[in-house]
């Protein structure tokens, strides 16, 4: 039996749990998420479960299908292109706004998050890769003065989580991510904003290309 849900509202707690279970593969693409079964498992009414499923639909994790309910979404080439193109547009803007006012303590925090990311990759702790990658990026953007853009990018990084985990399965991608993250820190510390923003765009684009190639290759199989 699942442990009782205790934090924030019931709906947001269910969103968090279901999102992690989808990312972990407990609910593969095409799985049906039945409101009554989930309500029984979490020992709640169907109302917060229904709210959670609508939120997960907005995040792209499920599709609400008439007469079938919530179905776990598959990996989508269109979504990859959309999400990563948006990231390429918005994240350099946040980086350019945030980095000039990051403190030494802020940079230490960024470096600490990168170290945690590398530790998780070394340990093959797949469940943490996407979250730690998002934490690293958001720490670099933390002092940006565009709160709406920050909220949008946070959502895009959350959506990217399942794709980031997939892309980092390859050792070459892991090593490249490590090198690019550390170079991004170095350029940002040095105040080389044009170079840092260019690297960030390239970094996001390379991940997109890896994922597109993976899905296209899988489609041939």
TrEMBL record:
Record bears the keyword Cytoplasm: no
HTH gntR-type domain residues: 8-75
Keyword DNA damage belongs to the record: no
InterPro entries per UniProt: GntR_C (IPR011711), TF_FadR/GntR_C (IPR008920), Tscrpt_reg_HTH_GntR (IPR000524), WH-like_DNA-bd_sf (IPR036388), WH_DNA-bd_sf (IPR036390)
Keywords: DNA-binding, Transcription, Transcription regulation
GO molecular function: DNA binding; DNA-binding transcription factor activity
PANTHER family: TRANSCRIPTIONAL REGULATOR, GNTR FAMILY, TRANSCRIPTIONAL REGULATORY PROTEIN
Name of the protein in its database record: DNA-binding transcriptional regulator, GntR family
Organism: Bosea lupini
């Amino acid at each position: 039996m699942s442990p009782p849900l205790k934090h924030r509202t019931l709906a947001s707690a269910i969103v968090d749990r279901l999102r992690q279970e989808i990312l972990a593969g407990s609910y593969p693409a095409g799985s049906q998420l039945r409101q009554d079964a989930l309500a029984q498992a979490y020992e709640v009414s169907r109302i917060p479960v229904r709210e959670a499923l609508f939120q997960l639909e907005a995040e792209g994790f499920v599709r609400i299908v008439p007469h079938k309910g919530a179905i776990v979404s598959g990996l989508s080439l269109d979504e990859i292109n959309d999400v990563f193109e948006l990231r390429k547009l918005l994240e350099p803007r946040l980086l350019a706004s945030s980095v000039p006012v990051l403190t030494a303590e802020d940079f230490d925090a960024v470096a600490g998050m990168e170290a945690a990311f590398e530790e998780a990759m070394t340990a093959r702790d797949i469940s943490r890769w996407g979250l730690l990658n998002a934490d690293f990026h958001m720490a670099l953007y933390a002092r940006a003065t565009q709160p709406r853009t920050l909220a949008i990018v946070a959502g895009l990084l959350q959506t990217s989580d399942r794709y980031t985990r997939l892309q980092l399965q390859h050792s070459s991608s892991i090593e490249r991510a490590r090198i690019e993250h550390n170079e991004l820190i170095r350029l940002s510390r040095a105040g080389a904003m044009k170079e840092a923003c260019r690297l960030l765009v390239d970094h996001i684009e390379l991940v997109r290309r890896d994922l597109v190639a993976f899905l296209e290759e899988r489609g041939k199989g």
